Amino acid sequence: MEIKNYAAIIAQELDLQEKQVQNVLDLLESGATIPFIARYRKEATDSLDEVQIGNIRDRHAKLVELDKRRATIIDSVEEQGKLTPELRSKFEQAATMAELEDLYLPYRPKRKTRASVAKEKGLEPLAALIMSQREPNLMSIAQKHVNKAKGVETAEDALAGARDIIAEWVSENANVRSRLRSFFRKEAIITSKVVKDKEKEGEKYDGYFNFSEKLAKAPSHRILAMFRGEEEGFLRLSIAPDEIRVLPGLKKHFIKADNLCSEQVSLAVTDSYKRLLQPQMETEMRKIFKEKADKEAINVFVTNLRQLLLAPPLGQKTVMAIDPGFRTGCKVVILDKQGKLLHNETIYPHPPQKEYKLASDKLKRMVLQYQVEAIAIGNGTAGRETEYFVSKIPFERDVQAIVVNESGASVYSASQIARDEFPDYDVTVRGAVSIGRRLMDPLAELVKIDPKSIGVGQYQHDVNQTLLQESLDTTVESCVNYVGVEVNTASKELLSRVSGVGPALAKNIVEYRNENGPFASRNALKKVPRFGDKAFEQAAGFLRIRNAENPLDSSAVHPESYHIVDEMAAKCHCSVKELIQNAELRKSINLKEYVTDKAGLPTLQDIMQELAKPGRDPRTQFDLFEFDKSISTINDVKVGMVVPGIITNITNFGCFVDIGVHQDGLVHISQLANHYVKNPNDEVKLNQKVMVKVIGVEVERKRINLSMKEA
């Protein structure tokens, strides 16, 4: 088999230059990561971004998979002695897996079928005769195939067996399958019916009890909802176009005459469609549209996760964190500027204990003693009540109370990571620590939690779990490398997400740091066991050493480019530190003088941007937010209210907004502000602060409907 030029194929499909694609494939093959390629190999890729590089990687994997299957199929047909030059050519030209499998279908080893049974009875010659549609004496020929010893009792039995063979031929016709597949994709209707006697039990799916729409137009969330309803045993689904629109065209493809033979062919085609083709096409459509819905749902999840991970950090401040509770009390912890646990205790300001004064005095004492600068309050049970309680305390220093989304904190607190980090503390302390740390640096804390537990997905349990995990892992790694990691304070979980590092090397870095003290330079990382040249190349640019002797060690400038900055400083007759501090000196630099084969203008421009703000956190500035103090439970929410909220989740059908009552409200896509409807590219974002109007409240069902149009 000829060696395929994958780069040329991918370049054409993705509208890129072949050289760009080939360079990406070569870099990936050498072990380079996507963040590294996107950030530090712009000359090789002509500045392709992470998404484009990921698309090249994924398409290459699909093409390799297709060719592996192609080779297996050709070998199988060759072993059967049925591989002709023409058939080999068809196999080699097949551009998709579906096309390849259609061609292979007649040669695929089969279990017993009605057609194979008929062939064993010697009825294949009769089937071929009927298919030719030229025999005028069909019944007399059929009579000759009666063989009671083989179970062919009558001429009609012979014709029935021949029709079974023809039906299988029809179903295995590659051209027919291709055309029918295309028709199904465009015209199939997905129909949903409630399973008998399951109406009450499956009430949450009542919108799909008698529902149908064109499959091609069904949004991903509806497809996933119907599939879930079917999986749970409440719905029965079918997928097919109107039969009247399919059968005439199908018969026209095979019927070439008007006689008894063509009548038999007509019956066989009808049987083939109903018994074989329609179920097979339905199975394919389920797979195709499930994959499409999965990808859309995963894209929503990935977008939400990225926004959550890149949420503004409060920064290095001494924080009091409170994990609220009623009966069991509120767990309070104090964290220093690096997130280290200094103190913990429990207060009981809420019913049934109602120790308001004692709890208030304790918080005032801790704020003063530890010079607390901010208070993080979890938004779970008793969150609003605790926020209200804290807001009434007259602290002796200026301190801001901030409500923090605690989704996933309980998962972290019970994890092995948390047990390793805090072996002497229980889950309540660990949960409070997580709440405080995610205020200080959401990214550094959330990387310790399985993204699926953070609560920003859409139908996350219904989608392909392998693809979901891969996509989420890629997103986490992208965010970590985008922000950069302070190597002397980072956890091993955060370090493991750095390009080229991974869990084993991250563990070695932390152990070396614990034994030998903080790293003084990036170069010192090479002393870590297993931190070889390749790992250093991939990781160094994303690792930061604050207050290092070389100021570039705290920047995103890669060590491989330090010599360029040294040359710039030398020409400006200053030190690197002075070059960073003096904008006028940097303006005098002519970048074209420093262009080489390895470092072109894209790299040089990145270096200049980094020198202007070395090590700057690319995340936006932290912004304070307060809920409406007049509402704390869903019972306080009334239609017509206009209240502030924070977007907590975004789906294809709208977004969910936390208005501070323990139950997020839904802004349906039809109720988004006109600004977003008119400008689809301008999207709502996770953690965005918005004003919303309450347009519906169902207390018993815990549903709140909101609008951004009139707010």
Describe this protein's structure.
About 50% of the residues lie in helices and about 10% in strands. The protein is of the alpha/beta class. The protein has five domains: about 100 residues, RuvA domain 2-like (Arc Repressor Mutant, subunit A), CATH 1.10.10.650; about 190 residues, Tex N-terminal region-like; about 120 residues, YqgF/RNase H-like domain (Nucleotidyltransferase, domain 5, 2-Layer Sandwich), CATH 3.30.420; about 110 residues, DNA polymerase, domain 1, CATH 1.10.150; about 70 residues, OB fold (Dihydrolipoamide Acetyltransferase, E2P). The strands form four sheets. It has a five-stranded mixed beta sheet, with helices on both faces. A five-stranded mixed barrel has the order 11-12-13-15-14. Strands 2-1-3 form a three-stranded antiparallel beta sheet. A hairpin with a 4-residue loop joins strand 14 and strand 15. The radius of gyration is 33 Å and the shape is globular. The mean pLDDT is about 95.
Question: How do you describe this structure in short?
Answer:
The chain has 711 residues and is α/β, with parallel strands linked by helices. 48% of the residues lie in helices and 12% in strands.
**Which architecture of the largest domain would the CATH scheme give at its second level?**
Orthogonal Bundle
Helix content: 40-55%
Uncertain runs are none
CATH superfamily of the largest domain: Tex N-terminal region-like
Based on CA atoms alone, the radius of gyration comes out at 33 Å
Shape: globular
Class inferred from helices and paired strands:
alpha/beta
Largest β sheet strand count, sense and barrel closure: 5 strands, mixed
Name of the CATH first level of the largest domain: Mainly Alpha
The end-to-end span amounts to 64 Å
If you average the pLDDT, what whole number results?
93
